[in-house]
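Q: How would the structure tokens look for this protein?
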Amino acid sequence: MVDVGAKPHSKRIAVASGMISVNDNAYSKILSADSKKGNVLGVARIAAIQAAKQTSNLIPLCHPIALTRVKVDFSLDDEKRTISICVQTENTGQTGVEMEALTAASIGLLTIYDMLKAVDRSMIISDICLQHKEGGQSGSWQRLP
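A: Here is the predicted structure in token form.
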């Protein structure tokens, strides 16, 4: 692992997002919170939070960090039948929280896939990316539109 021991503690924030496209049947299950496995977005939110907390166990050489906040939001597009996830992770520490935000977004979307695969195997997960980060030596960064 990279030695971060000499780095000063600073407030760090990262925002990651992604999207999943589903068919009409799967979309209606999300809207009605009526899939066989339960409330899809509720379970996906918990999965995303758990994933953020477990990132160092999933990604080799990733530092274990004490997260101070994980915020998970979903937005639905009725016309395109897509669900977008946006995850914000925060801590005060010596290394950033980008991997935690990206992992959480990925696992949140994979959970939606898992919960709905019985009604739609054609789902497409896409556009997982870092949107914003701040803190640390490199300062702030923002994805351009």
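The chain has one domain: 10-142.

The chain has a mean pLDDT of 95.

Upvote if useful.
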